[in-house]
Amino acid sequence: MTRIGIIGGGNIGEALLSGLVAKGTDPSDITVADRSEQRLGLLEQRYGVKTSVEATDAAEDADVLINCVKPDVALGVFESVSDVVDANSSATIAVSVAAGVTLEAMESVLPAGTPVVRVMPNTPMLVGKGTSALAGGRAAEQSHLELVRDVFAKVGRAVIVKEKDIDAVTAVSGSGPAYFFLVTEAMVDAGVNLGLPRVLAEELAVSTAEGAAAMMAAGLDDEENGDGPVDLRAKVSSPGGTTSAATRALEENGIRTAFFRAMQACKDRSIELGK
Ligand SMILES: NC(=O)c1ccc[n+]([C@@H]2O[C@H](COP(=O)([O-])OP(=O)(O)OC[C@H]3O[C@@H](n4cnc5c(N)ncnc54)[C@H](OP(=O)(O)O)[C@@H]3O)[C@@H](O)[C@H]2O)c1
Protein backbone atom coordinates (compact mmCIF):
# COMPACT_ATOMS: atom_id res chain seq x y z
CA MET A 1 0.00 0.00 0.00
CA THR A 2 1.38 3.39 -1.01
CA ARG A 3 -0.07 6.43 0.76
CA ILE A 4 -0.30 9.39 -1.56
CA GLY A 5 -0.65 13.05 -0.63
CA ILE A 6 -1.56 15.61 -3.27
CA ILE A 7 -1.25 19.32 -2.52
CA GLY A 8 -3.21 21.45 -5.01
CA GLY A 9 -6.39 19.93 -6.41
CA GLY A 10 -6.42 21.93 -9.66
CA ASN A 11 -6.04 20.65 -13.25
CA ILE A 12 -2.96 18.51 -12.75
CA GLY A 13 -3.88 17.44 -9.19
CA GLU A 14 -7.31 16.25 -10.31
CA ALA A 15 -5.95 14.55 -13.44
CA LEU A 16 -3.57 12.52 -11.27
CA LEU A 17 -6.25 11.79 -8.75
CA SER A 18 -8.72 10.56 -11.33
CA GLY A 19 -6.08 8.36 -13.01
CA LEU A 20 -4.99 6.82 -9.72
CA VAL A 21 -8.54 6.01 -8.60
CA ALA A 22 -9.55 4.76 -12.07
CA LYS A 23 -6.53 2.42 -12.12
CA GLY A 24 -7.33 0.86 -8.77
CA THR A 25 -5.67 2.92 -6.04
CA ASP A 26 -7.84 2.77 -2.91
CA PRO A 27 -9.25 6.32 -2.45
CA SER A 28 -8.72 6.00 1.30
CA ASP A 29 -4.95 5.90 0.62
CA ILE A 30 -5.09 9.36 -1.01
CA THR A 31 -5.32 12.69 0.80
CA VAL A 32 -5.77 15.88 -1.20
CA ALA A 33 -5.17 19.36 0.18
CA ASP A 34 -6.34 22.57 -1.46
CA ARG A 35 -7.14 26.10 -0.29
CA SER A 36 -10.72 25.92 -1.49
CA GLU A 37 -13.21 23.96 0.61
CA GLN A 38 -15.63 24.02 -2.30
CA ARG A 39 -13.07 22.43 -4.59
CA LEU A 40 -12.26 19.79 -1.98
CA GLY A 41 -15.96 18.98 -1.54
CA LEU A 42 -16.18 18.33 -5.27
CA LEU A 43 -13.09 16.08 -5.31
CA GLU A 44 -14.34 14.17 -2.28
CA GLN A 45 -17.68 13.61 -3.98
CA ARG A 46 -16.15 12.59 -7.33
CA TYR A 47 -13.39 10.29 -6.10
CA GLY A 48 -14.13 9.42 -2.45
CA VAL A 49 -10.67 10.58 -1.32
CA LYS A 50 -9.78 12.21 2.01
CA THR A 51 -9.42 15.99 1.80
CA SER A 52 -8.15 18.86 3.94
CA VAL A 53 -7.50 22.58 3.68
CA GLU A 54 -4.21 21.98 5.51
CA ALA A 55 -1.30 20.97 3.28
CA THR A 56 0.27 19.31 6.33
CA ASP A 57 -2.59 16.77 6.41
CA ALA A 58 -1.69 15.61 2.89
CA ALA A 59 1.96 15.35 3.93
CA GLU A 60 1.30 13.39 7.10
CA ASP A 61 2.50 9.79 6.68
CA ALA A 62 2.56 10.15 2.88
CA ASP A 63 4.90 7.77 1.07
CA VAL A 64 4.65 9.98 -2.01
CA LEU A 65 3.79 13.67 -1.61
CA ILE A 66 2.94 15.36 -4.90
CA ASN A 67 3.02 19.15 -4.98
CA CYS A 68 0.64 20.33 -7.74
CA VAL A 69 0.46 24.08 -7.04
CA LYS A 70 1.69 26.86 -9.34
CA PRO A 71 5.46 27.33 -9.64
CA ASP A 72 5.57 30.65 -7.75
CA VAL A 73 4.16 29.05 -4.58
CA ALA A 74 5.58 25.52 -4.90
CA LEU A 75 8.64 26.04 -2.69
CA GLY A 76 6.60 27.86 -0.02
CA VAL A 77 4.26 24.87 0.11
CA PHE A 78 7.17 22.45 0.59
CA GLU A 79 8.58 24.72 3.29
CA SER A 80 5.22 24.71 5.11
CA VAL A 81 5.16 20.88 5.29
CA SER A 82 8.86 20.36 5.95
CA ASP A 83 8.47 19.59 9.67
CA VAL A 84 5.75 17.03 8.97
CA VAL A 85 7.88 15.34 6.29
CA ASP A 86 10.74 15.27 8.80
CA ALA A 87 8.54 13.55 11.39
CA ASN A 88 7.15 10.91 9.00
CA SER A 89 8.21 7.36 9.74
CA SER A 90 8.59 6.48 6.03
CA ALA A 91 11.07 8.34 3.86
CA THR A 92 8.49 10.51 2.09
CA ILE A 93 9.29 11.04 -1.57
CA ALA A 94 8.61 14.72 -2.35
CA VAL A 95 7.47 15.30 -5.93
CA SER A 96 6.94 18.58 -7.78
CA VAL A 97 5.35 19.15 -11.18
CA ALA A 98 6.08 22.89 -11.12
CA ALA A 99 7.78 24.18 -14.25
CA GLY A 100 11.21 25.66 -13.54
CA VAL A 101 11.48 24.52 -9.89
CA THR A 102 14.79 22.65 -9.66
CA LEU A 103 15.73 19.64 -7.55
CA GLU A 104 18.30 21.76 -5.73
CA ALA A 105 15.64 24.33 -4.80
CA MET A 106 13.33 21.56 -3.55
CA GLU A 107 16.15 20.03 -1.49
CA SER A 108 16.94 23.42 0.04
CA VAL A 109 13.47 23.74 1.67
CA LEU A 110 12.92 20.10 2.67
CA PRO A 111 14.62 18.10 5.43
CA ALA A 112 18.15 16.93 4.56
CA GLY A 113 18.11 13.52 2.89
CA THR A 114 14.54 13.77 1.55
CA PRO A 115 14.26 11.97 -1.80
CA VAL A 116 12.96 14.58 -4.24
CA VAL A 117 11.63 14.05 -7.76
CA ARG A 118 10.91 16.71 -10.38
CA VAL A 119 8.32 15.91 -13.02
CA MET A 120 7.62 17.62 -16.34
CA PRO A 121 4.10 16.53 -17.34
CA ASN A 122 2.02 17.76 -20.26
CA THR A 123 -1.65 18.65 -20.68
CA PRO A 124 -2.91 15.47 -22.41
CA MET A 125 -2.61 14.05 -18.89
CA LEU A 126 -6.03 15.63 -18.41
CA VAL A 127 -7.48 12.96 -20.71
CA GLY A 128 -5.26 10.12 -19.48
CA LYS A 129 -2.78 10.50 -22.37
CA GLY A 130 -0.06 12.51 -20.70
CA THR A 131 3.67 12.28 -21.25
CA SER A 132 5.73 12.83 -18.11
CA ALA A 133 9.49 12.89 -17.71
CA LEU A 134 10.90 12.67 -14.20
CA ALA A 135 14.29 13.27 -12.65
CA GLY A 136 15.51 12.48 -9.14
CA GLY A 137 17.55 14.45 -6.62
CA ARG A 138 20.56 13.38 -4.56
CA ALA A 139 18.67 11.07 -2.19
CA ALA A 140 16.32 9.62 -4.80
CA GLU A 141 17.08 5.97 -5.42
CA GLN A 142 16.01 3.95 -8.45
CA SER A 143 13.15 2.41 -6.44
CA HIS A 144 11.85 5.90 -5.55
CA LEU A 145 11.97 6.95 -9.20
CA GLU A 146 10.18 3.80 -10.30
CA LEU A 147 7.44 4.33 -7.72
CA VAL A 148 6.83 7.89 -8.95
CA ARG A 149 7.03 6.74 -12.57
CA ASP A 150 4.31 4.17 -11.85
CA VAL A 151 2.08 6.89 -10.35
CA PHE A 152 2.41 9.12 -13.44
CA ALA A 153 2.06 6.12 -15.78
CA LYS A 154 -1.56 5.89 -14.57
CA VAL A 155 -2.28 9.00 -16.64
CA GLY A 156 -0.20 8.25 -19.73
CA ARG A 157 3.45 7.45 -20.38
CA ALA A 158 6.22 8.27 -17.93
CA VAL A 159 9.98 8.11 -18.43
CA ILE A 160 12.97 8.65 -16.14
CA VAL A 161 15.52 11.22 -17.34
CA LYS A 162 18.43 13.26 -15.95
CA GLU A 163 17.61 16.74 -14.68
CA LYS A 164 20.06 18.27 -17.19
CA ASP A 165 17.68 17.08 -19.93
CA ILE A 166 14.51 18.63 -18.48
CA ASP A 167 14.76 21.82 -20.60
CA ALA A 168 15.07 19.74 -23.78
CA VAL A 169 12.19 17.54 -22.57
CA THR A 170 10.12 20.70 -22.12
CA ALA A 171 10.81 21.54 -25.77
CA VAL A 172 9.66 18.10 -26.96
CA SER A 173 6.82 16.87 -24.73
CA GLY A 174 6.12 19.72 -22.27
CA SER A 175 5.24 22.28 -24.95
CA GLY A 176 4.76 19.67 -27.69
CA PRO A 177 0.96 19.44 -27.59
CA ALA A 178 0.76 23.09 -28.71
CA TYR A 179 2.82 22.33 -31.85
CA PHE A 180 0.33 19.63 -32.85
CA PHE A 181 -2.59 21.97 -32.14
CA LEU A 182 -0.97 24.59 -34.36
CA VAL A 183 -0.29 22.15 -37.20
CA THR A 184 -3.90 20.92 -36.99
CA GLU A 185 -5.19 24.50 -37.01
CA ALA A 186 -3.09 25.22 -40.11
CA MET A 187 -4.52 22.12 -41.83
CA VAL A 188 -8.05 23.31 -41.05
CA ASP A 189 -7.36 26.74 -42.56
CA ALA A 190 -5.76 25.16 -45.62
CA GLY A 191 -8.78 22.86 -46.01
CA VAL A 192 -11.08 25.88 -45.92
CA ASN A 193 -8.87 27.51 -48.53
CA LEU A 194 -9.38 24.44 -50.72
CA GLY A 195 -13.14 24.91 -50.49
CA LEU A 196 -14.24 22.71 -47.55
CA PRO A 197 -16.65 23.98 -44.89
CA ARG A 198 -14.68 24.80 -41.68
CA VAL A 199 -16.62 22.31 -39.54
CA LEU A 200 -15.86 19.50 -41.96
CA ALA A 201 -12.20 20.53 -42.34
CA GLU A 202 -11.83 20.51 -38.55
CA GLU A 203 -13.44 17.09 -38.15
CA LEU A 204 -11.18 15.65 -40.86
CA ALA A 205 -7.99 17.25 -39.51
CA VAL A 206 -8.56 16.35 -35.83
CA SER A 207 -9.64 12.81 -36.62
CA THR A 208 -6.58 12.39 -38.86
CA ALA A 209 -4.31 13.61 -36.05
CA GLU A 210 -5.94 11.10 -33.70
CA GLY A 211 -5.47 8.23 -36.18
CA ALA A 212 -1.87 9.16 -36.99
CA ALA A 213 -1.04 9.43 -33.26
CA ALA A 214 -2.60 6.02 -32.59
CA MET A 215 -0.47 4.43 -35.36
CA MET A 216 2.73 6.00 -33.98
CA ALA A 217 1.83 4.94 -30.43
CA ALA A 218 1.21 1.36 -31.61
CA GLY A 219 4.69 1.44 -33.16
CA LEU A 220 6.17 2.57 -29.87
CA ASP A 221 4.41 -0.22 -27.97
CA ASP A 222 5.68 -2.92 -30.33
CA GLU A 223 9.43 -2.52 -29.92
CA GLU A 224 10.32 -5.39 -32.25
CA ASN A 225 8.00 -4.96 -35.21
CA GLY A 226 6.43 -1.55 -34.72
CA ASP A 227 6.78 1.19 -37.32
CA GLY A 228 8.24 4.56 -36.31
CA PRO A 229 7.19 7.89 -37.85
CA VAL A 230 9.74 7.52 -40.67
CA ASP A 231 8.44 4.08 -41.74
CA LEU A 232 4.83 5.19 -41.44
CA ARG A 233 5.37 8.19 -43.69
CA ALA A 234 7.32 6.14 -46.23
CA LYS A 235 4.43 3.67 -46.41
CA VAL A 236 1.89 6.35 -47.33
CA SER A 237 4.16 8.09 -49.86
CA SER A 238 3.78 6.33 -53.20
CA PRO A 239 6.28 7.26 -55.92
CA GLY A 240 5.24 10.42 -57.71
CA GLY A 241 2.02 10.51 -55.68
CA THR A 242 -0.06 13.09 -53.84
CA THR A 243 1.55 12.71 -50.38
CA SER A 244 5.03 13.01 -51.86
CA ALA A 245 3.98 16.23 -53.62
CA ALA A 246 2.75 17.64 -50.31
CA THR A 247 5.91 16.56 -48.47
CA ARG A 248 8.11 18.23 -51.08
CA ALA A 249 6.20 21.51 -50.64
CA LEU A 250 6.55 21.27 -46.83
CA GLU A 251 10.30 20.64 -47.13
CA GLU A 252 10.78 23.49 -49.62
CA ASN A 253 9.07 25.76 -47.10
CA GLY A 254 11.50 24.75 -44.38
CA ILE A 255 9.33 22.68 -42.06
CA ARG A 256 12.30 20.97 -40.41
CA THR A 257 14.22 24.21 -39.92
CA ALA A 258 11.09 25.73 -38.37
CA PHE A 259 10.93 22.90 -35.80
CA PHE A 260 14.68 23.01 -35.03
CA ARG A 261 14.41 26.75 -34.37
CA ALA A 262 11.12 26.56 -32.47
CA MET A 263 12.34 23.87 -30.10
CA GLN A 264 15.68 25.62 -29.53
CA ALA A 265 13.69 28.74 -28.62
CA CYS A 266 11.56 26.69 -26.23
CA LYS A 267 14.61 25.15 -24.53
CA ASP A 268 16.31 28.56 -24.22
CA ARG A 269 13.18 30.05 -22.65
CA SER A 270 12.88 27.13 -20.24
CA ILE A 271 16.49 27.69 -19.10
CA GLU A 272 15.81 31.42 -18.70
CA LEU A 273 12.64 30.83 -16.62
CA GLY A 274 14.44 28.33 -14.39
CA LYS A 275 16.99 30.95 -13.30
N1 LIG B 1 -1.57 22.55 -16.60
C1 LIG B 1 -0.56 22.09 -17.32
O1 LIG B 1 -0.65 21.83 -18.49
C2 LIG B 1 0.79 21.86 -16.72
C3 LIG B 1 1.79 21.28 -17.49
C4 LIG B 1 3.04 21.08 -16.91
C5 LIG B 1 3.24 21.46 -15.58
N2 LIG B 1 2.23 22.02 -14.87
C6 LIG B 1 2.46 22.42 -13.49
O2 LIG B 1 1.43 21.88 -12.68
C7 LIG B 1 1.24 22.76 -11.57
C8 LIG B 1 -0.24 22.91 -11.34
O3 LIG B 1 -0.86 23.45 -12.51
P1 LIG B 1 -2.43 23.46 -12.64
O4 LIG B 1 -2.75 23.86 -14.01
O5 LIG B 1 -2.99 22.18 -12.10
O6 LIG B 1 -2.79 24.67 -11.61
P2 LIG B 1 -4.18 25.00 -10.91
O7 LIG B 1 -5.31 24.43 -11.70
O8 LIG B 1 -4.16 26.44 -10.56
O9 LIG B 1 -4.13 24.14 -9.56
C9 LIG B 1 -3.39 24.51 -8.43
C10 LIG B 1 -4.29 24.34 -7.22
O10 LIG B 1 -3.52 24.46 -6.03
C11 LIG B 1 -4.22 25.29 -5.12
N3 LIG B 1 -3.27 25.89 -4.16
C12 LIG B 1 -2.53 27.01 -4.29
N4 LIG B 1 -1.80 27.23 -3.17
C13 LIG B 1 -2.08 26.21 -2.33
C14 LIG B 1 -1.64 25.87 -1.02
N5 LIG B 1 -0.78 26.64 -0.35
N6 LIG B 1 -2.13 24.74 -0.45
C15 LIG B 1 -3.03 23.98 -1.09
N7 LIG B 1 -3.48 24.26 -2.35
C16 LIG B 1 -3.02 25.36 -2.95
C17 LIG B 1 -4.87 26.31 -6.02
O11 LIG B 1 -5.85 27.03 -5.36
P3 LIG B 1 -6.15 28.54 -5.85
O12 LIG B 1 -6.86 28.41 -7.15
O13 LIG B 1 -6.98 29.08 -4.74
O14 LIG B 1 -4.83 29.24 -5.99
C18 LIG B 1 -5.41 25.39 -7.14
O15 LIG B 1 -6.62 24.77 -6.80
C19 LIG B 1 1.98 24.06 -11.90
O16 LIG B 1 3.13 24.15 -11.07
C20 LIG B 1 2.40 23.92 -13.33
O17 LIG B 1 3.67 24.48 -13.58
C21 LIG B 1 1.01 22.24 -15.40
From TrEMBL:
Limits of the Pyrroline-5-carboxylate reductase dimerisation domain: 163-273
Residues in Pyrroline-5-carboxylate reductase catalytic N-terminal domain copies: 3-100
Stored Gene3D superfamilies: NAD(P)-binding Rossmann-like Domain (3.40.50.720), ProC C-terminal domain-like (1.10.3730.10)
InterPro entries xrefs: 6-PGluconate_DH-like_C_sf (IPR008927), NAD(P)-bd_dom_sf (IPR036291), P5C_Rdtase_cat_N (IPR028939), P5CR_dimer (IPR029036), Pyrroline-COOH_reductase (IPR000304)
Gene Ontology CC terms: cytoplasm
Swiss-Prot/TrEMBL catalytic activity: L-proline + NAD(+) = (S)-1-pyrroline-5-carboxylate + NADH + 2 H(+); L-proline + NADP(+) = (S)-1-pyrroline-5-carboxylate + NADPH + 2 H(+)
Tagged with keyword Transcription regulation: no
Keywords associated with the record: Amino-acid biosynthesis, Cytoplasm, NADP, Oxidoreductase, Proline biosynthesis
Superkingdom of origin organism: Bacteria
Location of the protein in the cell: Cytoplasm
This enzyme's EC code(s): 1.5.1.2
Flavoprotein recorded as keyword: no
Any single Pfam family the record assigns to this protein: P5CR_dimer
One GO term (biological process): L-proline biosynthetic process
One term of GO molecular function: pyrroline-5-carboxylate reductase activity
Listed SUPFAM superfamilies: 6-phosphogluconate dehydrogenase C-terminal domain-like, NAD(P)-binding Rossmann-fold domains
Pathway involvement of the protein, from the record: Amino-acid biosynthesis; L-proline biosynthesis; L-proline from L-glutamate 5-semialdehyde: step 1/1
Purpose: Catalyzes the reduction of 1-pyrroline-5-carboxylate (PCA) to L-proline.
Family: Belongs to the pyrroline-5-carboxylate reductase family.
HAMAP family linked to this entry: P5C_reductase (MF_01925)
NCBIfam families cross-referenced by the UniProt entry: proC
Name of this protein: Pyrroline-5-carboxylate reductase
Organism whose genome encodes this protein: Corynebacterium heidelbergense
Lineage, top ranks: Bacteria, Bacillati, Actinomycetota, Actinomycetes, Mycobacteriales
